[in-house]
Amino acid sequence: MTQFTLDSRLIADTIPVGDLSLSRVLLMNDSRYPWLLLVPRLPDIREFIDLDMTNRARIWREIEDVSEMMRHEFSPHKLNVAALGNVVPQLHVHVIARSLDDAAWPRPVWGVGDRIPYEPDAGQVLAARLSAALGYL
Amino acid sequence: MTQFTLDSRLIADTIPVGDLSLSRVLLMNDSRYPWLLLVPRLPDIREFIDLDMTNRARIWREIEDVSEMMRHEFSPHKLNVAALGNVVPQLHVHVIARSLDDAAWPRPVWGVGDRIPYEPDAGQVLAARLSAALGYL
Predict the structure, then answer these.
(1) Closest CA to B92 of B35, B52, B137
(2) What CATH number did the domain enclosing A124 receive?
(3) CB contact under 8 A, B78 and A48
(4) In this predicted model, what pLDDT tens digit does every residue of B78-134 receive, in sequence order?
(5) Domain of residue B101, residue span
């Protein structure tokens, strides 16, 4: 059985937040939006429907939990939830807290301008805060 | 209690496919991609987490069913599954069958060029075919 490995492009663009029961949670290192990724810790998964029934139920629940947490922490105007994977096929689910004055509104965030990384300390502090918030759900 | 009504912009851009247990299924009238929308037939729902637990389970299941059907019918290179709602806030879930030679690949489909509507007959025929395919899942 192949082992889970995180795509190098996902590692490069993110700050680790923590592990839920199925998914690794990553903070996109882009200070323009509160933007999390959920990546199931299983090998060879491209689509939701590549997951077995147990893990489908897990990831839906984790999307709900992360969404509730994002709503509580950021009071977004709208959440964006998406699994695209055209560039990085490893299944990763975006949960993005959108606001009316963010850099891309009302467009989707992908491909709009360049990432603006967090200041190193700020990224770590935010990741720790979101990790704690997920723990307290 | 408010009644369910479909946002007029969703009506304008789509061809009806049919109703699942929770969602109305719509075919995006854009011949560049096989592209379905799922819209829960409930009033005042903007986010997945606005649904109660029973209906959350329903919509996840319906996303799985529509995804399986799309994979079977179109053998896409990748499925895109997304709930954005920045322009039309009524919850609608995109399930899009992407291929390596489609008009937007590898970009997301939103905001890329203009819709190319189906020929009227072709759109109705495809909607009927997908409706049947969903019934036979």
Answers:
(1) B35
(2) 3.30.428.10
(3) no
(4) 999 999 999 999 999 999 999 999 999 999 999 999 999 999 899 999 999 999 999
(5) 8-124
Residues of B in contact with A76 (CB under 8 A): none
Q: Is residue B17 part of a domain?
A: yes
Which chain A residue shows the shortest CA-CA distance from B105?
A86
A74 to chain B, any CB pair closer than 8 A? The answer is: no
Query: How many separate domains does chain A show?
Result: 1
Residue B1 domain-assigned (yes or no): no
* Residue A55 with chain B: CB contacts under 8 Å: none
From the list B114, B95, B85, B77, the residue with the least C-alpha distance to B17 is B95
pTM value is: 0.97
The answer to whether residue B137 is domain-embedded is no
Chain B CB within 8 Å of residue A86 CB: yes
The Cα–Cα gap between A107 and A115 comes to 15
> Per-residue pLDDT tens for A12-52?
999 999 999 999 999 999 999 999 999 999 999 999 999 99
Residues of chain A neighbouring B110 (CB-CB closer than 8 A): 107-108
As given in the structure block, the two tokens for residue B31 are 């011949």
pLDDT at A137 exceeding the cut of 80: no
> Residue A46: inside a domain, yes or no?
yes
Q: Which tokens go with B19?
A: 């109703």
